[in-house]
Design goal:
Layout (H helix, E strand, L loop, with lengths): L1 H10 L11 H6 L4 H19 L5 H16 L2 H13 L5 H9 L5 H22 L3 H25 L12 H4 L4 H20 L4 H26 L4 H20 L3
Helix pairs in contact: 3-4, 3-8, 4-7, 5-6, 5-7, 5-12, 7-12, 8-10, 8-11, 8-12, 11-12
């Protein structure tokens, strides 16, 4: 429970209070990232369901997206923009890391952010026209699987940034493979629960495959360009996985 609260405190803007703190907690709390993701997705799903009763699907979709962004403080969106600003052009590793630290946003980052928001809003608008239970399930899965993909990248790569200036140093240290195993266990429990309430296994497996592909591609990109992961790279992984999972849920196959 303590590690779950640490994960909730780290990934959201919710006012979580903890007595004391140990750096190892932040490293180990990644095993519960899918649970926090599921909670964020569920909150977005609740907004989508409520808003769809009063407004057209696209307005409900934007409100649901705004709710998830508000809950996380745009944490992952910031990482997406910084990653594409740094790696969108052909620059050296050191230059890329310097760009990631720059608070200003460039054309690559702005394009990635706008396209990500537009695509997610469009996908949620499609879901809002379908049975609402399926739409909420898609949101829950997309957020849970997306954060698990980030954990997978973390476990499989060394830290590629400047360790001395890392904002969350415990996460820049080696993350034990068992934490990925536990995160995957949470995803399996979530999938089994949703399947039991009517979500097709085919959709869930397609979503898992989409998340795995994005994690694998991001791992290769970050390793090739930076020699490892950064916090911004993990944020970009989360955002791109969300999109991939929502695409899997909305595909007409």
């Amino acid at each position: 429970m303590r590690l779950l609260l640490v994960a909730l405190q780290f990934l959201t803007r919710l006012p979580v209070r903890l007595s004391g703190f140990q750096p190892a907690w932040l490293n180990d709390c990644v095993r519960h990232f899918p649970v926090v993701g599921a909670a964020v997705g569920l909150a977005g799903g609740a907004v989508l369901a409520a808003a769809a009763q009063a407004w057209p699907a696209w307005i409900a979709a934007v409100l649901a997206l705004a709710a998830t962004v508000a809950l996380t403080g745009g944490f992952h969106e910031d990482g997406l923009a910084d990653t594409f600003d740094a790696l969108g052009g052909v620059v050296s590793r050191d230059k890329a890391l310097a760009i990631m630290k720059d608070s200003r946003i460039g054309s690559y980052g702005a394009l990635a952010l706008v396209l990500s928001l537009l695509l997610r809003a469009a996908l949620l608008a499609v879901l809002a026209t379908r049975p609402m239970g399926a739409a909420v399930a898609a949101l829950v899965v997309s957020h849970a699987f997306a954060r698990t993909a980030a954990v997978g990248v973390m476990v499989s790569l060394p830290y590629g940034g400047d360790l001395e200036h890392a904002k969350a140093k415990p996460l820049a240290l080696a993350v034990a493979p068992r934490n990925l195993g536990l995160a995957l266990g949470w995803c399996a429990l979530l999938a089994a629960g949703l399947a039991g309430t009517g979500t097709p296994w085919g959709r869930l497996l397609a979503a898992a495959a989409a998340a795995a592909v994005v994690a694998w591609l991001m791992r290769g990109w970050l390793r090739r360009r930076l020699g490892g992961y950064t916090g911004d790279g993990l944020g970009a992984t989360e955002q791109l996985t969300e999109i991939a999972v929502l695409l899997a849920f909305t595909a007409s196959v």
